[in-house]
């Protein structure tokens, strides 16, 4: 979205609030750098809303070499926004955690609203947590606290805020903006500010970015920190899988998600769990114990050595009775006789360096947040910056918060269908996909529609090839089709290197790299007639190619050859 430069220089403060999440530092970095490039002054607020309430009780005037040297620079360079805002000296204290040190001659004690420059946020992109601190502020929830926050912002001349936090933090941001005019009036009436200040700061601009590992905010497909938390969970399950298989054990793994089961759901899909418990879609059976045991017993009956059950911390049955990991353990051990262990991943899900997506997404959203602030007027709503279908979007903050609360309300009213509909568009699809590939239950098509589906890998190996194969195989089996592995691509096909794939055979393929089927860059035109003959010999009714450009090219070659080779007149698809 285009931005229009304001008449006066905008002073932007960024704060992180609520639970920390990977990517928050990338948000701060992006807002600071984008703000400076747009000609704004940039500040950080330490300790979230608590820092707004406390403000600055100490003023420090320490000359910085960069600022001092401006007098010796040519005017055009000295007036450059980046040069004038290169650094203000507090960046190292923030990054190294020395801001509150007792043995330092210079610290951030008594200073919660701190001006920062370009170089002060250098190296923040890959740091986990939030270097400017976060807190759940009880004081800000009171009118008196918000009064102090308004006074402190006006005192520093700040008229725009970027808030990165969860739905509670963004609710507080919207309330603060709604109360701002009355807070300014109170400050003026109490002689806390001048009439000129009241006129200059009569409008507070606020933009929210969603920092939440739960991915629990409506009207955005993904929240900052959720991809990294998911990555941590998958790494943990990968480690647990080996010991679970070695001892033929069951593991009940608790993940975060009080009102939203996104982490449990997507981790269940990603790591190949046997059963999941999420708040939005509890087990449909009157007895969740019976439903879970039936599925896991069937898995064990076909020879599966390990069992993984994922449970969100807010899990419950369809009557809203809480379900916890210990209960699940007792059922697995008591009813099925499984040697069962419980693992609570806890705060390991929050910590650590952000993954690539939690560096890219906060950067793009941080830039958009600055643009939204620059374009804001008293008549425009406060925006939440989100992402929908891979596009950075602006949504009215109040609407996003309202819809998020509606989801929690729907769960509380046992309206689970509505709760599912209020999640992002892929939530329900992911749940359906999980059920399709995690159970042995079949809903077969009529015999006349059953197919022998050939699956082969083409081109260079890539992460995800085996996961795609596992899903395709299990979905085929669930519909009564017969999946056939073609090993080593078209070269293997010409050597009749093919065999059926079973449900259990692909169980561990979700987490394996490379290509379990073997792959190469050979195209079908190495011997079109021979390939067609092998299609006919093995009775292929459909073909699925998994690969890159070579797979696409192979499909094109076979499609063009259909007139000459009738064996290619079958459904063919590529991933």
What report would you give on this structure?
The protein is of the alpha/beta class and 575 residues long. Helix content is 41%, strand content 14%. It contains 21 helices and 16 strands. The chain has helices spanning 24-37, 48-54, 65-69, 75-78, 81-84, 91-96, 143-156, 167-189, 195-200, 226-247, 262-271, 288-301, 325-336, 357-375, 397-412, 416-421, 425-438, 465-478, 489-494, 528-537, 549-560, and strands at residues 11-16, 41-45, 113-115, 160-165, 205-210, 250-255, 275-277, 307-312, 340-344, 383-388, 391-396, 452-458, 482-486, 498-500, 542-547, 572-574. The strands form three sheets. Strands 3-2-1-4-5-10-11 form a seven-stranded mixed sheet, with helices on both faces. Strands 14-13-12-15-16 form a five-stranded mixed sheet, with helices on both faces. β15 (542-547), α21 and β16 form a beta-alpha-beta unit. α8 (167-189) crosses α15 (397-412) and α11 (262-271) packs across α17. The radius of gyration is 29 Å and the shape is elongated. The model is unreliable at 1-6 (pLDDT under 50).
């Amino acid at each position: 979205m285009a931005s229009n430069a304001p008449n006066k220089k905008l002073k932007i403060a960024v704060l992180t609030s609520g639970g920390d999440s990977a990517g928050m530092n990338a948000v701060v970095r992006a807002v600071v750098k984008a703000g400076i490039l747009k000609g704004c002054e940039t500040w950080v607020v330490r300790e979230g809303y608590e820092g707004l309430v406390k403000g600055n009780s100490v003023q420090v005037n320490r000359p910085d070499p960069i600022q001092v040297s401006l007098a010796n620079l040519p005017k055009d360079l000295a007036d450059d926004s980046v040069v004038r805002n290169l650094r203000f000296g507090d960046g190292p204290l923030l990054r190294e955690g020395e801001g509150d040190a007792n043995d330092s001659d210079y610290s951030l004690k008594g200073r919660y609203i701190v001006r920062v420059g370009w170089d002060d946020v250098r190296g923040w992109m890959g740091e986990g947590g939030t270097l400017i601190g976060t807190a759940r502020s009880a004081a800000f929830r009171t009118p008196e606290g918000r009064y102090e926050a308004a006074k402190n912002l006006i005192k520093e001349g700040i008229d725009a805020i970027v808030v990165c936090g969860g739905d509670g933090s963004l609710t507080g941001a919207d309330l603060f903006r709604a109360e701002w005019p009355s807070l300014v009036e109170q400050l003026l009436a109490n002689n806390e500010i001048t009439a000129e200040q009241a006129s200059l700061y009569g409008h507070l601009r606020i933009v929210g970015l969603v920092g939440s590992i739960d991915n629990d905010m409506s009207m955005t497909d993904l929240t900052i920190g959720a991809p990294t938390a998911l990555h941590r969970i998958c790494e943990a399950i990968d480690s647990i899988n080996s010991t679970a298989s070695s001892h033929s054990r069951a593991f009940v793994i608790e993940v975060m998600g009080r009102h939203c089961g996104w982490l449990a759901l997507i981790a269940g899909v990603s790591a190949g769990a046997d059963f999941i418990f999420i708040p939005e879609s509890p087990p449909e059976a009157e007895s969740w114990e019976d439903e879970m045991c039936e599925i896991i017993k069937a898995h064990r009956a076909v020879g599966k050595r390990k069992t993984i059950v994922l449970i969100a911390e807010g899990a419950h049955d369809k009557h809203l009775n809480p379900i916890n990991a210990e209960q699940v353990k007792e059922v697995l051990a008591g009813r099925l006789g499984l040697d069962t262990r419980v693992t609570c991943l806890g705060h390991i899900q929050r910590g650590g360096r952000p993954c690539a997506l939690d560096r890219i997404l906060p950067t793009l959203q941080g830039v958009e947040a600055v643009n939204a602030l620059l374009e804001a007027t008293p008549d425009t709503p406060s925006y939440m910056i989100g992402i929908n279908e891979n596009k950075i979007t602006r949504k009215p903050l109040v609407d996003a918060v309202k819809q998020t609360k509606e989801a929690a309300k729907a769960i509380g009213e046992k309206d689970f269908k509505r709760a599912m509909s209020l999640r992002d568009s892929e939530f329900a699809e992911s749940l359906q996909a999980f059920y399709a590939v995690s159970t042995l239950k079949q809903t077969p098509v009529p015999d006349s529609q059953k197919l022998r589906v050939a699956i082969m890998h083409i081109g260079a190996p890539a992460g995800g090839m085996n996961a795609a194969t596992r899903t395709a195989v299990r979905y085929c089996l669930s519909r009564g089709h017969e999946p056939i592995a073609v090993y080593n691509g078209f070269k293997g096909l010409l050597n009749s290197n093919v065999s059926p794939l079973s449900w259990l055979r692909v169980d561990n393929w979700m987490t394996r790299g490379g290509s379990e089927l073997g792959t190469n860059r050979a195209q079908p035109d190495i011997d079109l007639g021979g390939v067609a003959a092998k299609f006919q010999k093995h009775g292929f009714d459909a073909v699925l190619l998994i690969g890159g450009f070579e797979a696409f090219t192979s499909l094109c070659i076979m499609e063009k050859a259909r007139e000459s080779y009738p064996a290619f007149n079958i459904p063919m698809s590529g991933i």
